[in-house]
Amino acid sequence: MKILQDLSFTELENLIEQLGEKKFRAAQLNTGLMQGKRISAINIPAALKDGLLQEYVDEPLKIVQTLTSSDGTEKYLFSLADGNVIEGVLMKYEYGYSQCVSTQVGCRMGCKFCASTLGGLVRNLTAGEILSQILVVNALVKMKGGSVKKVVLMGSGEPLDNYANVVRFLRNLAAPTGINISPRNVSLSTCGLVPQMRSLADEGLGVNLTVSLHQTTDEGRARTMPIAKRYSIAEILEACNYYFKKTGRRYIFEYTLIDGENCDREHARQLIALLKGRCCHVNLIRLNEVKERKLLSATDRQAYEFLGWLEKGGLSATVRRRMGADIGGACGQLRASFLEGKKC
Ligand code: SAH
């Protein structure tokens, strides 16, 4: 079965014409899809609906579980048409809502601190499955009088390991006929797939690039991130320079603080030496401990001390706010616990 939400508006118009219908039906159909409706619930002629439903999935994704935090953050578990599950998070800020979406079922990057990769990669999500996470959540947010304003590709999966689908999703998301979320309001996080970072710079999209650094040397990085054996920090920094040159966008480094691994004074000194003078920002993340792993989070005190060192060294940095701590667990934990429950 195919997914209608994968298509751009022009492709949707072509499809409607191929089915022998008038072009304006594409706009009608598109309005319903962008409101997060399933095909069968959209107001179009029955013959067209039947024709579409023979080839396309009625509902590519639906919410099967919602957890709400006292700070307003919501975590969703979505099920896909083939029964796979993925998760997402909705955070409320002063400017509106920001949604964290998944790009793959599972992940094959193998980072030691991350729950999303525990079962390996199951499959890539299509562009329409990534978009549908936003469409169904935006429909709920609209009922509260708001809308999703920002999107972060920081759920399960490595976005640049699913390059073609992610780029298609970004184009459809930004289209005026879509839900019109500009690439400036989208952040893509990568563990550092250097060739794809360079290709992304050439796409002319201008999304915010975020790179998971987490260490200051290649040897240290390889202890928790297998991808460090393939691409060096020097190559990552060159690709970031290229991204900045092509897009004019400042880039962000994520640095998850792991006790005894990467947050002493020497690491701060090395990080300053690596990043000083670059047009970048460092986001310090306190590790969400994953029960299958032995790694421990830095304390709040360690985190703010590390922040102080970086600031004194001239870097722009912040400690990321912990949102939804009470519904918590690490990225990927909701899916992991759901699957565990299913086994018993
Ligand atoms: N594959 C992408 C997106 C991952 S999720 C990437 O690697 O960037 C977004 C961020 O959360 C990444 O920086 C990732 O390294 C970090 N992360 C993963 N597991 C974490 C955990 N248990 N605690 C804190 N941060 C974590």
Q: Please, could you describe this protein's structure?
A:
By secondary structure, the protein is of the alpha/beta class. It is 37% helix and 20% strand. It has eleven helices and twelve strands. The strands form two sheets. It has a ten-stranded mixed sheet with strand order 1-2-3-4-7-8-9-10-11-12. Strands 5-6 form a two-stranded antiparallel sheet. Strand 7 (148-153), helix 5 and strand 8 form a beta-alpha-beta unit. Helix 1 (9-18) packs across helix 2 (24-34) and helix 4 (127-143) runs parallel beside helix 5. The radius of gyration is 21 Å and the shape is globular. It starts with 8 loop residues before the first helix and ends with a helix. Bound molecules: S-adenosyl-L-homocysteine (SAH). S-adenosyl-L-homocysteine is lined by residues 111, 113-114, 154, 158, 189-191, 212, 254, 256, 285, 287-288, 290, 330-331.
The major pleated sheet works out as: 10 strands, mixed
Major beta sheet, strand line-up: 1-2-3-4-7-8-9-10-11-12
Q: Termini distance? A: 31 Å
Strand content: 15-25%
Count up the helices: 11
Residue share in helix: 25-40%
Summed over residues and divided by their number, the pLDDT gives a mean of: 94
Low-confidence stretches: none
Order of helices and strands: HHHEEEEEEHEHEHEHHEHEHEH
Q: How big is the Rg? A: 21 Å
- Which of globular, elongated, flat, extended, rod-shaped describes the shape? globular
Q: What oligomeric state do the depicted chains represent?
A: single chain
Secondary structural class = alpha/beta
Q: Which ligands does the model contain, each kind named once?
A: S-adenosyl-L-homocysteine
Instruction: Count every beta strand, where a strand is a DSSP E run of 2 or more residues.
Output: 12
